[in-house]
């Protein structure tokens, strides 16, 4: 073995990256808080609080530019790890079942209450839930406002699943055609992303994508035609896949965590208090987005790379909680609506209810063998 090969081999990670599991758990917890926040800010959401306004916007922007990118990076890393085990056909079957069955379950049974309360609030729909379900399942397109019609049936917050499935199938195809692709990209990244290049090069790429695609292809989460989001999320997915087996790159992320944290705080402040105009806003968001991601991975690598039964338990709970949480938020918000509670009181109540009920749902679902695959849980006795 040559010296260069030996060095490369030494740079490949052999231990399980437990910090990715912890980051995934924390990212989905932030997602729950973010979706509760969407009820109270002026941004478009399925239902809105009568007290909705701008007060929470700075705190929403604290995670908004990078939270989904973090999930796609983690998913890319996990996908690259799984592709090393077993046949690719088996992998395709397992991942398709793990992602598409919950998506189907969600569209058919979990999402309809969200859409029902949306049409009752936005379009003053007066029919009961049973009547609405007939419209929902038959693809009714009569709920329209300012030239845009509500798409029924829909996947709402579950858009992450079809995107991840497409990226996963693409990664599987690439790996089948070139089995050494992740080792090669990892070696290339190790040569290129040195020092401040680890921060500056990805920032420049994100800025380029925003500058060229953001205005032309607004976010839709509709999968087809969502060009800008694909540019960002596919990039993050493949960065995660490239990082997964390289200890050197993870170590560099950890070393850059403090400079990245400083940049993230500074450019978050610029984003929310100075509010730069385009194209400067694109540059600010690009810097903030990548700095926040490096901060998250760097600190997690140092402080969260350890196992425990809590990690294992919560890692399994994350998927059902993700599937259920937004429906619980919307239904609970409408149950509480007649009380006209102030957001300072109602918000924490919604957060507690959402975590408690979605986790209780997980505890129930995991005990019913028939339901497990429909909520992203492996069948009992099957490895993850």
Plain-language structure description:
It is a single chain. By secondary structure, the chain is mostly helical. It has a domain at 36-65 and 328-384. It is built from 16 helices and two strands. It has helices at 3-11, 18-38, 57-60, 67-82, 88-110, 112-122, 129-137, 160-177, 181-192, 197-214, 227-243, 247-255, 257-274, 280-303, 309-336, 343-365, and strands at residues 144-145, 148-149. A two-stranded antiparallel sheet has the order 1-2. Helix 13 runs antiparallel to helix 14 (280-303). It is globular and about 60 Å long. It starts with a helix and ends in a 19-residue tail after the last helix. Mean pLDDT is 93; it is low at 1-10.
- Tally of strands: 2
Largest sheet properties: 2 strands, antiparallel
Low-confidence stretches: 1-10
Order of helices and strands: HHHHHHHEEHHHHHHHHH
- The first-to-last residue Cα distance is 35 Å
Percent of residues in β-strands: under 5%
| Rg (C-alpha, Å) | 22 Å
Our count of helices gives 16
The order of strands across the largest sheet is: 1-2
Structural class based on helices, strands and sheet pairing = mainly alpha
Average pLDDT, all residues: 93
Cα shape: globular
Oligomeric grouping of the chains? single chain
Percent in helix: 55-70%
Structure keywords:
single chain; 384 residues; mainly alpha; two-stranded antiparallel ribbon; 16 helices; 2 strands; 1% strand; globular; disordered N terminus
């Amino acid at each position: 073995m040559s010296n260069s090969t030996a060095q490369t081999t030494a740079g490949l990670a052999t231990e399980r990256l437990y910090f990715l599991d912890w980051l995934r758990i924390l990212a989905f917890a932030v997602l729950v808080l973010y979706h509760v926040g969407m009820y109270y800010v002026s941004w478009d959401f399925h239902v809105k609080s009568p007290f909705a306004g701008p007060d929470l916007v700075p705190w929403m922007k604290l995670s908004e530019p990078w939270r989904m990118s973090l999930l796609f990076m983690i998913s890319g890393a996990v996908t690259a790890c799984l592709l090393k085990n077993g046949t690719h056909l088996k992998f395709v079957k397992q991942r398709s079942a793990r992602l598409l069955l919950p998506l189907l379950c969600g569209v058919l049974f979990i999402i309809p209450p969200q859409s029902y309360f949306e049409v009752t609030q936005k379009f003053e729909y007066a029919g009961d839930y049973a009547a609405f379900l007939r419209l929902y399942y038959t693809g009714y397109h009569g709920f329209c406002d300012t030239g845009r019609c509500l798409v029924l049936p829909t996947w709402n917050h579950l858009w992450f699943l079809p995107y991840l499935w497409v990226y996963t199938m693409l990664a599987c195809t690439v790996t089948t055609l070139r089995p050494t692709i992740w080792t090669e990209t990892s070696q290339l990244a190790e040569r290129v992303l040195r020092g401040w290049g680890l921060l500056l090069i990805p920032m420049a790429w994100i800025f380029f994508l925003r500058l060229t695609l953001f205005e032309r292809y607004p976010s839709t989460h509709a999968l087809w035609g969502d060009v800008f989001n694909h540019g960002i999320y596919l990039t993050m997915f493949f960065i995660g896949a490239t990082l997964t087996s390289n200890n050197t790159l993870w170590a560099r992320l950890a070393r850059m965590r403090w400079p990245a944290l400083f940049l993230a705080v500074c450019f978050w402040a610029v984003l929310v208090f100075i509010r730069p105009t385009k194209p400067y806003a694109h540059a600010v968001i690009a810097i903030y987005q990548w700095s926040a991601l490096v901060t998250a991975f760097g600190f997690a690598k140092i402080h969260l790379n350890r196992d425990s039964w809590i990690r294992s338990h919560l890692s399994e709970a994350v998927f059902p909680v993700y599937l259920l949480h937004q429906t619980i938020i919307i239904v609970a918000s409408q149950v509480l609506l007649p009380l006209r509670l102030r957001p300072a009181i109602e918000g924490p109540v919604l957060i507690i209810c959402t975590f408690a009920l979605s986790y209780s749902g997980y505890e129930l679902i995991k005990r019913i063998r028939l339901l497990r695959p429909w909520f992203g849980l492996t069948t009992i006795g099957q490895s993850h």
